[in-house]
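Key idea: predict the complex, not the pieces.
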Amino acid sequence: MNHGDHQKLFFWLLLAPFALWLILLIFIPHLDMLSIALRERVAPREYAFSLANFQAFFTEPLYWRTFLRTALMSILATALTLLIAFPVAWYIAKILRGRSKSLLFLLCLIPFWVSELVRTYGWMILLRETGVVSRVLQWSGLVDGPVEMLYNDAAILLGLVYNALLFMVVPLVTALDSLSDELVEASYDLGGNSLSTLRFVVIPHAMPGIVSGCIIVFMLTLGNYLTPTLLGGKDSLWFTGQIYTQFITRFNWELGSAFGVLLLILSSVIVWLGLRLSGQTLSGTLAR
Amino acid sequence: MIPSLPRSSASAALYTAYVALFFVFLLAPLVVVGVFAFNDSLFASLPWQGFTLDWFTAAGDGRTGVFRDGPLLESIGVSLFVAFWVTVLSLSVATTNAFLFERHVFRGREFLFMLMLLPLVIPGVILGISILIASNSLANVLEDRFLLEWDWLRPGLVLVILGQFSFITTIATLVVTARLRKIDRSLEEAARDLGAGHLAVLLTVTLPWLRPALLACGIVAFLMSFENFNTTLMLVSSDSPLTITLFDRLREGSTPALNAVSLLLMTGSGLLALISVLAQRNPPR
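Result:
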């Protein structure tokens, strides 16, 4: 064999695991999910093509309302995460220098190394009726009896934002780090104030970081099952909960698959819109 | 906004206070989990009843410490087993992927790279159910047509491993590819000029260069697998990994034993995190 043949052989040898991984574990399973979503049982072990599962989704208010609620709360959680994380990222990227800067940045990463389950358990200890916050409030005389702060939408949002913060802070710090101080100074010299500098200098510069942070946070929030279930209780009404119910409790895989397809469409559309509006690409955003 | 610009000391103090509050918010849940592992009470909550190690070591008297809790220890074993295989598989494929994308120019390379990123934008629950569906249909076909009973295609640890492998590979590929891109190609050429064959160059130059990335990436893959919940939930059967066991216990009502496990988990992942940070800081030459 000459050199060119060698190269070709290596190429195919390297392509094989890649192709097997993507085809067997991503493409075929998703096509299978779609085909099951598009069928209906007409007799025992006999199926026919049908849109009945999607029809069930649109006619049963519980389903589409849960879907809409999940989408809106995910968007809200993403926006809140951005608002909370931005000042912190600015502080780390622009105000701190040297050791304290890298120390604080590492501190931001700590929760990532801890399982989501442990983090959520921590919030349960803090927020439940017999929890730390409730006891402290009683002890300080601000309230008379125990307060239940778990099992409501605010608790779900809090948990989601908490779990997402890291994925927002890191891309924001990376983006803001590269903004030179001179640009900010120039903006003030030219008569700008804090607000106009933020609007016309800082945000345009940080856009790639903002977009990649928002995409990752939105995805994680939308597909989360653990946090809404534990912090929201039985009535958390999160769409992944519906998928779980259909698959594991009711064993209605057809409807569950249809839900899965819908969730996948929703997340793709929102990610695509986000990329489109900000002029970024998927490879450019995720592969940095 | 930046240190070189004048601003009132009040607003500066307010800003610092906000950042301080942020870090309290960030660390509070982790601290309470750790602290209440040592509370001498049946519940992980105030009031503080005194210090105890019961939740680690006790056996009996209504208290079962982590180290005496058979099912819990078993699920830690299951998690270690799963995480080991996920790490091995995803690192291998990530390495071949890195060579594919960095060392070969071919038509559709950009497109394949984008496909490679897809698992990152698919929610974990969906990855789980789609693999569940596909393996189940395959198992049914094998059973109906060929009378083969391949039980590993039914929910269980093999599917859990495959499910986690499916998306952890993407993250591992990104890390290894980034490292391979930075290699000084003249090192490899020098080795070849000195008479080394392809394999020798790979083993003595390229792979040693990748080692810190592979180590750090292996640790991340191991932890992501150990802590995965959403994908695993859809694919488990009776052998449940730690996160699933903890989730079930949390819903039944918890004792500080859960805090003790969580504290062990935090310590373990903290140590691994430290190793991975150190590994990337001092690349061996």
